[in-house]
């Protein structure tokens, strides 16, 4: 990292010129340094021009760099007059000559690094339809991404390090970072870092590290690091960019977005950057509410001096979004959408309504929680940070980056959307856990209109017969939607920092320091059953029992909400303290060989408690009215708490070797031994009303890789052979006991996995205007040792068993995953087309059901209207492919993927099941104005 301060002397001399690419197009934002003491620097403007004033006389080195181009270091002789020097930058096709900071304690040229790092630059980011952080990362080689739920509730992992990231904690092994620090310090169910991250014009580039040195450079994230780096501008003039986007998603649902960013020097070597975005998105699938809206503001204020810099930065995020559940399908061999649903358009989310549900924590105070499933998750994040770098005497330097944030994520959405037949006793047990059990004439009314939609007699089901309709009106598919109101309130106040001391001497770059993280977090979860029709765009149902000559019993309130707070109750809190000390040495054994050795000792402390709960059992329920049975079973705290207080200590290490074969090629290898401490879901999910006696297991991760990097004039590539092994994987299933209407997690089983594979990233530029890119992974992921606890559908352990699936293929990991694209750019016209291929994956560890391979095509065309204004049309999933990204198991309330075995499929060949399709087509028109 080159830092500096403008030299002010009386001589009226200057150095200026223009920086262009190989097509003679101006490069805006290139950095130009002159190695005077102190250093002079400039940033090229929109015309590619740079200006260095008050230049001294003498011989100096002029350095020019810009991401995506090979740097230039030119010896220049200045005589005190005005000098003009212009340069053409040669494309650095894979950014191998670019300095990267992710996965390294000191900035390192990628070609000389013994890590697997890929970079997305500004041009790459502008080719991507904005659909969330995970969706963007599909362009990183070797990265498996499941963004089928939308912008949040996503899954990202690499190299088979995936097992604990397959459900509701999809970033379990990797660190999502902004400017070198994690977005969030902790994770647990429905609380991941993607809730608090949005990419916009303030993002300059993305660096992605896969495995390897993440074991020693990241906080509890041995699987990799995805680092979003913010814009830095040091132009003396005000520069910026505004971007307007509009388009349609799915079946004509509109999307609107505005981004802006500004930056400039402020004098005395101060500079600022500020920007953000706001969007309004009706969603990729059909709902009766706005799917996403909101945005963020980010800034940084930097002071540069002769020894380094001081940067103050911050972010304010205030955003609403939702996430999609699965879609019903039949035909195990070739899944087809069932019950009138559609893989491209069906959402099966409850419609918008406004309910007030008693808060089980404060029943005596009469407190309620407002609930509207259209709100999805409301994420707020206020963060402020300080980044400092200073060169000291005797080749020492110090860097410290620290950040404080306060976060809140409030979920109000549907959980589950299973088929529950009107002839299934579960339908009538769920309103009050059988207290009382409604038998007789059940009436279903539309909550918005009050119209009766169906009247049935459910008494025949207890003799093994189906229900009887008592009028001509029927409910769609003779079923209700098996869903719950999912109210979840999460808060966290966090502080994190990383301090690094660096010493250079002889042939060594020595780094050591420590990182700390503190999080004070709490979570409250409450779930109630909700009656709605089982169809596209469900209708909420008010449900009553109306037996002749008897009082009307209300199974739901006027909004269709039933069994207030009786399905889920979690009220937990935790203090997390994380500390690590690390040491790393990059030893230049010779001019062409570097050895990189690192150790990290980490300690993670978890202290907290879970409230025990019990149903509210007063006669007549909370309101004392025996006709309103929907409030008869509210879960409330007993006053007892189950505490946890555990400390996890472990040592991780990593060793890498880089052999520089030529100026443009290198061979590297690395072996790493990392660890993954449990996340808070271990305590919050697995110990309902039982003591927390034992600490969670630390997962052990071994990784080895051998790679080759080469940057030729028109062809560049990296290729990496890798091996990874993951041990002590805690696996527990989410289960529903329909005889007691209780929801529980099965006892944890500890398993191992192993993956061999080959990653590659290539780019070919055969002629000046045409570029081809090809990246991907070929791998063999195995469940080396794998047991699943079979609860046999009930809490009763008498009939439980353990099933051994050792040797099966690891679920959800494709054997083949690649991206192939071509890009054209000449004069003012640019275009691209991308083919993203995801190979066949196992739907569960039983290997009983496979998710078929699918392809997605993205495309775009752009035109530079003038030097400031440009326009682009982008399309994601251009052909509207209906690939399947995930599998949730049988189409029944409380089912999970592991419940589907080959025996189950053989016994139920015509059964329906739940899959999660990929997002449908999105098209976008973008206008950019840069100045």
UniProtKB/TrEMBL annotation:
It is found in: Cell outer membrane. The keyword Aminoacyl-tRNA synthetase does not apply. GO terms for cellular component: cell outer membrane. Keywords: Cell outer membrane, Ion transport, Iron, Iron transport, Membrane, Receptor, Signal, TonB box, Transmembrane, Transmembrane beta strand, Transport. Gene3D superfamilies: Carboxypeptidase-like, regulatory domain (2.60.40.1120), TonB-dependent receptor, beta-barrel domain (2.40.170.20), TonB-dependent receptor, plug domain (2.170.130.10). Pfam families: CarbopepD_reg_2, Plug, TonB_dep_Rec_b-barrel. The keyword Iron applies. Residues 112-225 form the TonB-dependent receptor plug domain. Residues 324-878 form the TonB-dependent receptor-like beta-barrel domain. Its main location: membrane. InterPro entries: Beta-barrel_TonB, Beta-barrel_TonB_sf, CarboxyPept-like_regulatory, Plug_dom, Plug_dom_sf, TonB-dep_rcpt-like. One of its GO terms (molecular function) is siderophore uptake transmembrane transporter activity. It is a multi-pass membrane protein. Belongs to the TonB-dependent receptor family. This is Outer membrane receptor protein involved in Fe transport.
């Amino acid at each position: 990292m080159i830092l500096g301060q403008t030299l002010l002397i009386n001589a009226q001399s200057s150095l200026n010129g223009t920086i262009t690419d190989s097509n003679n197009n101006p490069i805006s934002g290139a950095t130009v340094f002159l190695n005077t003491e102190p250093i002079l620097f400039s940033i090229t403007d929109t015309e590619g021009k740079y200006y260095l004033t008050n230049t001294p006389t003498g011989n100096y080195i002029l350095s020019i760099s810009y991401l995506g181009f090979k740097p230039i270091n030119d010896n220049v002789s200045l005589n005190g007059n005005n000098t003009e020097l212009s340069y053409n930058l040669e494309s650095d096709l894979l950014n191998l000559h670019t300095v990267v900071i992710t996965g390294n304690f000191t900035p390192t040229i990628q070609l000389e690094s013994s890590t697997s790092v890929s970079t997305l630059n500004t041009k790459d980011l502008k080719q991507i339809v904005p659909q969330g952080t995970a969706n963007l990362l599909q362009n990183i080689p070797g990265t498996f991404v499941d963004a089928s739920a939308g912008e949040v509730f996503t899954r990202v992992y690499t190299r088979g390090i995936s097992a604990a990231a397959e459900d509701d904690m999809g970033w379990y092994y990797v660190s999502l970072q902004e400017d070198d620090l994690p977005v969030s310090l902790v994770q647990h169910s429905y609380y991941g870092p993607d809730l608090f991250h949005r990419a916009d014009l303030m993002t300059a580039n993305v660096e992605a590290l896969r495995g390897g040195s993440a074991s020693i450079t990241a906080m509890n994230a041995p699987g990799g690091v995805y680092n979003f780096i913010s814009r830095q501008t040091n132009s003396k003039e005000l520069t910026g960019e505004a971007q307007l986007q509009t388009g349609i998603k799915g079946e004509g649902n509109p999307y609107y977005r505005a981004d802006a960013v500004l930056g400039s020097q402020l004098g005395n070597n101060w500079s600022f950057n500020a920007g953000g975005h706001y969007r309004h998105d009706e969603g990729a699938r059909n709902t009766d509410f706005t799917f996403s809206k909101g945005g963020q503001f980010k800034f940084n204020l930097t002071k540069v001096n002769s020894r380094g810099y001081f940067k103050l930065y911050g972010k304010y995020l205030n955003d609403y979004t939702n996430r999609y559940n699965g879609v019903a399908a039949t035909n195990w061999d070739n899944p087809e959408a069932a019950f009138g649903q559609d893989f491209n358009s069906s959402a099966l989310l409850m419609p918008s309504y406004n309910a007030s549900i008693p808060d089980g924590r404060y029943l005596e105070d009469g407190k309620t929680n407002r609930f509207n499933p259209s709100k999805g998750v409301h994420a707020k994040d206020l963060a402020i940070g300080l980044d400092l770098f200073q060169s000291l005497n005797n080749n020492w330097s110090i860097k410290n980056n620290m950040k404080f944030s306060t976060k809140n994520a409030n979920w109000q959405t549907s959980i589950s959307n299973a088929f529950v037949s009107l002839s299934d006793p579960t339908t009538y047990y769920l309103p009050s856990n059988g207290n009382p059990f409604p038998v007789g004439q059940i009436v279903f009314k539309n909550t918005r209109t009050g119209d009766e939609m169906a009247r049935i007699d459910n008494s025949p089901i207890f003799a093994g017969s189906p229900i009887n309709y008592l009028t001509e009106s029927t409910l769609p598919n003779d079923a209700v939607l098996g869903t719950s109101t999912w109210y979840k309130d999460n808060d966290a106040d966090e502080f994190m920092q990383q301090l690094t001391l660096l010493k250079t001497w002889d042939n060594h770059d020595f780094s050591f320091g420590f990182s700390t993280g503190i999080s004070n977090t709490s979570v409250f979860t409450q779930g109630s059953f909700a009656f709605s029709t089982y169809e596209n765009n469900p209708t909420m149902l008010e449900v009553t029992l109306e037996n002749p000559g008897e009082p009307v019993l209300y199974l739901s309130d006027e909004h269709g909400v039933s069994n207030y707070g009786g399905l889920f109750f979690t009220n937990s809190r935790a203090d997390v303290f994380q500390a690590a000390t690390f040491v790393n040495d990059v030893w230049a054994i010779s001019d062409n060989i570097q050895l990189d050795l690192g150790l990290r000792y980490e300690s993670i402390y978890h202290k907290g408690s879970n409230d025990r709960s019990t149903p509210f059992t007063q006669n007549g329920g909370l309101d004392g009215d025996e006709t309103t049975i929907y409030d008869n079973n509210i879960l409330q705290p007993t006053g007892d708490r189950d505490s946890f207080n555990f400390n996890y200590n472990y040592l991780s290490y990593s060793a890498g070797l880089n052999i520089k074969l030529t100026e443009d090629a290198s061979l590297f290898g690395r072996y790493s031994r990392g660890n993954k401490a449990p996340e808070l879901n271990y305590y919050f999910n697995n110990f309902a009303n039982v003591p927390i006696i034992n600490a969670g297991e630390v997962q052990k991760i071994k990784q080895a890789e051998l790679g080759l990097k080469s940057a030729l004039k028109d062809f560049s590539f990296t290729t990496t052979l890798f091996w990874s092994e993951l041990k002590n994987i805690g696996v527990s299933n989410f289960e529903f006991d329909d005889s007691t209407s209780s929801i529980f997690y099965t006892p944890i089983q500890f398993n191992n996995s192993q993956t061999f594979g080959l990653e590659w990233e290539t780019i070919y530029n055969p002629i000046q205007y045409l570029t081809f890119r090809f990246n991907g992974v070929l791998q063999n992921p195995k469940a080396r040792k794998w047991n699943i606890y079979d609860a046999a559908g009930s809490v009763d352990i008498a009939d439980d068993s353990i099933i051994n699936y050792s040797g099966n293929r690891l679920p959800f990991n494709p054997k083949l995953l690649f991206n192939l694209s071509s890009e054209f750019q000449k004069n003012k016209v640019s275009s691209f087309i991308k083919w993203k291929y995801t190979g066949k994956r196992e739907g569960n560890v039983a290997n009983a059901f496979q998710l078929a391979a699918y392809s997605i095509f993205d495309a775009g065309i752009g035109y530079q209207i003038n030097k400031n204004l440009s326009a682009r049309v982008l399309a994601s999933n251009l052909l509207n492919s209906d690939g399947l990204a995930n599998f949730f198991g049988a189409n029944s309330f409380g089912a999970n993927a592991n419940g589907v075995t080959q025996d189950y499929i053989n016994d139920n060949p015509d059964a329906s099941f739940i899959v999660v399709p990929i997002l449908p087509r999105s098209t976008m028109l973008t206008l950019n104005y840069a100045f």
